[in-house]
Design goal:
heterodimer; A: alpha+beta; Multidrug-efflux Transporter Regulator, Chain: A, Domain 2; three-stranded antiparallel β-sheet; globular; disordered C terminus; B: mainly beta; 2 domains; 2 helices
């Protein structure tokens, strides 16, 4: 895992064809996380840099979506304050392919058709869907337990800021003819170092996943047009 | 239990317990213990809220101290206000002194007195004709600054940044004195490390770096480096060490 490549602010503006005004406005609206602004002293004075892939991806998304949604609504979807309020209906999730029927059971989410899901539950489901092929069922359960417990305790707010990843690890221990394998679930910022005997079964980029979920939902949710918005949607904007 | 919202008025010296009110008026020395929610809060004496304050309208003409965050649609200060938290105010007008520990998030800010902020100031429109000291980023779509005292922000960023001489001429003598008193010397100038915007006009400004599309460096400026993409004009009474078209 290598370092994020950095790009200077003026290169971002030039490459994406946006203005200082737009960049600062998006920052104010919470569309670009504070953590991405990396201030460095250069020979031309203080300059701001960004992780290249993240900022370019984010600006593309903003540009693509801002025609359909007012900036403040867009911010509502991307910023974290509303995470708790964001509800997702099962059928919508399914249409977005975030929902994998087989993981529902593991996730212990009551299958009530109309009950909206919280963003925590959605993230949990998405992670499990990602892991479904490579992880064993008891490992899925372990992941589920870890996530649900920590998400309730405020992990969600840290996901984007700290660029959290979920690691599923296995280690085989053998001696005197017996061997055992233990599984571990770790949630930590990128670039952890583990001993060479540990097998990394899967790494899930939680920050990226959360972003994808929110952006996909934002595209699906017609926040801007009242005729399409269900009563639930309007209620949540309150 | 009475769920009916009340209005309260403190005159003389008194204490009010926090809660949900319609109108709260403090005209003597009053204290609100706990969080305060009100439609309108008026402080014309010395008032203190010991928790978080949420009020549609806040008017401070005496001295107001807020121990927690302040959330309001409209806040007017002609005396002195101190906030030990974040100020989330849609419309902020201050002709007195305004001190915020953490930051200001607003749509419209108009300062003709003195502003001191420990963090960032964010607004759609920021107008200042007094003095200010902002430890973090001052960012707005449009910034109009007429330094009437010492103005400082670590960074300034936005679409249009307009800094011109003449703030002190718009103020009366009294206010001018107040600004001078708070801002130290009588110098009226802006200092910043970095200024970035699309349209920038500067006068009486000292900065390390100015970056933008169309930049005018007016009289009284001392800039170490200017980076521009479309146009740069430098007044003969300005000093620009380094300029680069990017």
């Amino acid at each position: 895992m290598k370092d994020d490549k950095l790009i200077s602010k003026k290169d971002v503006l030039e490459r994406m064809g946006i203005s200082y005004g737009q960049l600062y406005r998006w920052k104010r609206k919470g569309l670009i996380p504070e953590a991405w602004f990396i201030r460095r002293s250069t020979f031309t004075g203080q300059e701001t840099f960004f992780p290249e892939d993240k900022i370019i991806g984010r600006i593309e998304q903003i540009k693509e979506m801002k025609g359909d949604h007012p900036l403040d609504d867009l911010a509502d979807v991307i910023t974290q304050q509303v995470d708790a309020k964001l509800r997702v209906a099962f059928d919508r999730l399914k249409s977005l392919k975030w929902l994998d029927e087989s993981v529902l059971e593991t996730c212990r989410i009551d299958r009530v058709e109309d009950r909206p899901l919280t963003i925590q539950e959605t993230l949990c489901l998405a992670v499990l869907s990602r892991l479904r092929r490579s992880a064993r069922s008891e490992e899925l359960d372990l992941v589920q337990k870890t996530l649900r417990e920590r998400l309730d305790a405020g992990l969600l707010d840290r996901v984007t800021d700290e660029n959290l990843q979920l690691y599923l690890l296995r280690k085989r221990l053998s001696g005197s003819g017996i061997s055992a394998e233990i599984s571990m679930v770790i949630v930590a910022p990128a670039k952890i170092v583990v001993d060479p005997e540990i097998e990394q079964v899967e790494v899930v980029d939680l920050a990226h996943l959360l972003e994808r979920i929110k952006l996909d939902l934002a595209k699906e949710t017609d926040i801007g047009s009242p005729e399409e918005a269900s009563p639930r949607d309007t209620e949540e904007e309150r | 239990m009475n769920d009916e919202k009340r209005s309260a008025s403190l005159a003389g010296s008194g204490k009010l317990s926090g809660g949900d009110y319609t109108r709260v008026s403090i005209s003597g020395a009053g204290k609100v213990s706990g969080d305060l929610k009100a439609e309108a809060l008026k402080i014309s004496g010395a008032g203190k809220v010991e928790g978080k304050t949420e009020a549609l309208q806040i008017a401070v003409s005496g001295s107001g101290a807020f121990a927690g965050d302040v959330v309001s649609d409209e806040m007017r200060v002609s005396g002195a206000a101190r906030i030990d938290g974040v100020a989330k105010v849609k419309e902020l007008k201050c002709s007195g002194s305004y001190r915020v520990k953490d930051g200001i998030s607003a749509e419209y800010v108009k300062i003709s007195g003195v502003l001191r902020v420990g963090g960032d100031v964010e607004a759609d429109l920021f107008k200042a004709s007094g003095g200010f000291e902002i430890e973090g980023l001052l960012s707005a779509d449009k910034l109009e600054i007429r330094p009437g005292g010492r103005c400082y922000a670590r960074e300034i960023g936005g679409e249009r940044i307009d800094v011109r001489r003449g703030g002190h001429r718009e103020r009366g003598i009294l206010l001018d004195g107040l600004v001078r008193m708070f801002s130290g010397r009588g110098t009226a100038e802006l200092k910043a490390n970095v200024i970035e915007g699309d349209e920038i006009h500067l006068e009486d400004t000292t900065a390390e770096v100015v970056r933008g599309k169309r930049i005018e460096i007016g009289p009284g400026c001392r800039i170490s480096a200017v980076e521009y993409s479309e146009r740069l004009d430098v007044h003969p009474d300005a000093e620009v060490k380094d300029q680069k078209k990017v």
